[in-house]
Amino acid sequence: MTISSATSGATIYYTTDGSTPTTSSSKYAGPVTISTTKTLKAIATAPNLTNSAVASGLYTIQTANRSQTQFLVPRQAPTRAP
Fold it and tell me: What's the distance, Cα to Cα, between the start and end of the chain in Å?
């Protein structure tokens, strides 16, 4: 899981326990591994700017019997030659 901000130079802080992130939370430094169902919440901070609103996402990890695991690739729409 990667997190980014549109604000150049912003620092991102996040939580994976559903709590609201603060500047005391984990500082984002690279991809976050999520291996069980978690709620990830993040804020972006930058000097002289107000902290961002909290962004959040619930990531549900479902496991299946290994012999039944399937990987589905979305079908692309056909293209027509001009």
Answer: 38
